[in-house]
Design a protein that fits this description.
Tetracycline Repressor, domain 2; mainly alpha; about 190 residues; 10 helices; HTH_TetR
Length: about 190
């Protein structure tokens, strides 16, 4: 038996994923049926099944598409920036901007649906790793005071986990986007040389 080869999505499928992401970001995904989605996007259910074999798998695929696309846009924003302070500022502003696109119902649906929540968690861990690298670079470049970069990055990672799991939202009454903006302020103020 030959292994199944994953095909890259066609241009039409990529466009449809983008449209699905915009719909889900605005209105969530739990309450939609495949019939609802097909009607809203003026396509057939067969077209949707070509993307994923079930509504649940389609939701996961769209959530993953959103986070992957967001990460790519953020990386473009920081490309070519040499100063670690500016990288962190622009990176976390990018995270905040991307999450600002997500409605409360979308975030609630992600939190309530374990496979989608796992996708968010994976992306949060990747963000924590990126921030760790930026902090280490800033310390090495002398733009941040000499701190235990791994410890600070781990603390930032714990805050990112708290944002991702909804704890910060529940306790502080802020959106995830606002929490990432505050994280940027905290990091940049705390790492500033004396």
């Amino acid at each position: 038996m030959q292994p199944r080869i994953r095909r890259q999505p066609t241009a039409r499928q990529r466009r449809l994923l983008g449209e699905l992401a915009e719909l889900f970001l605005a209105e969530g995904f739990v309450e939609f049926t495949l019939d609802d989605v097909a009607a809203r996007l003026h396509c057939s259910k067969t077209t949707l099944y070509a993307l994923a074999p079930s509504k649940e798998q389609l939701a996961v695929k769209v959530v993953a598409h959103f986070f992957k696309s967001a990460a790519e846009r953020i990386e473009v924003r920081i490309d070519g920036i040499g100063d670690a302070r500016k990288i962190i500022e622009v990176y976390l502003a990018g995270v905040s901007d991307e999450l600002n696109r997500a409605s409360d119902v979308f975030m609630a649906d992600v939190a309530a649906f374990e496979p989608a929540r796992a996708t968010y968690e994976m992306n949060s861990k990747a963000a924590a790793e990126r921030i760790s690298a930026f902090i280490a670079k800033g310390v090495a470049d002398g733009v941040f005071r000499d701190v235990h970069a791994t410890l600070i990055a781990e603390m930032a990672g714990l805050l990112i986990d708290g944002i991702q799991t909804g704890i910060v939202r529940a306790r502080a009454g802020v959106t995830d986007a606002e929490a990432f903006t505050a994280l940027s302020e905290l990091l940049l103020g705390g790492l500033r040389p004396h």
